[in-house]
Amino acid sequence: MKIILADDHPVFTAGVRAYLSHIPDCRVVASVSSADALVQCLESTPCDLVITEFSMPMTRIGDGLHLLSYIRRHHPHTWLVVLTTNDFPVVLYQIINSGVNGLLHKSDAIPEIGKTIRHLGNNTPYVGPSFQTLLQNGMDEQGTYLIPSPRETEVLRLYAAGHSLRDIAGRLSKSVKTVSLQKASAMKKLGLRNDIELGRYCAAASGDNIRPQGQEDWFLPEPGGRKRAPAA
């Protein structure tokens, strides 16, 4: 099995590589330290499995969820395992819903990587022990994950980016009262009590992304499957 490792912490990558060297039929063919480098590596280096951090430096991909979505669309036959320290249940659910084959916390025992590899090919993703309780806590009484609507999510991201409720209302052609209610509803679903926790959530959901102006979602295809060209 050919494996690509993606993580911006070299010591962690070295530890995973050393562990994988003792697993029969597993071989690390490349390691990268950013989302952009991972995308480029996948274009030139055939592999069977990608083991990646969710939050890595990125300039041309919108956020961690966009990275996973991109890999799933453009490399559908490549297994995908995420290792992360993200602890927001709703973000973890979104990671799983993106189609990954495994989700591990970086504090899980390293043999969990081996368990995840042996689980590949099953219909359900392997979730490490550190996340199982967190995911259960992210459900309501009916066992449904509490997910903000797309518009509520948009309001949260704009607010966390520094826009006032009045600015957001003007941008979305809504009343300030409507935008305020959408913000409050989204925060309640996410279990966020104040703006500090909101900021932490938005950073976690985006993977602390960096997007220079004019390069938003550069790798994501337009309708019809065409890639967007980079801005001049």
UniProtKB/TrEMBL annotation:
UniProt region (Disordered), positions on chain: 212-232
Coiled-coil blocks: none
Domain of life of the native organism: Bacteria
Ranges where the Response regulatory domain occurs: 2-121
InterPro entries linked to this entry: CheY-like_superfamily, NreC/VraR/RcsB-like_REC, Sig_transdc_resp-reg_C-effctor, Sig_transdc_resp-reg_receiver, Tscrpt_reg_LuxR_C, WalR-like, WH-like_DNA-bd_sf
Pfam families from the UniProt entry: GerE, Response_reg
Transmembrane segments: none
Signal peptide span: none
Residue ranges annotated for the HTH luxR-type domain, each copy included: 141-206
The entry's keywords: DNA-binding, Phosphoprotein
Protein name in UniProt: Bacterial regulatory s, luxR family protein
Species whose genome carries this gene: Collimonas pratensis
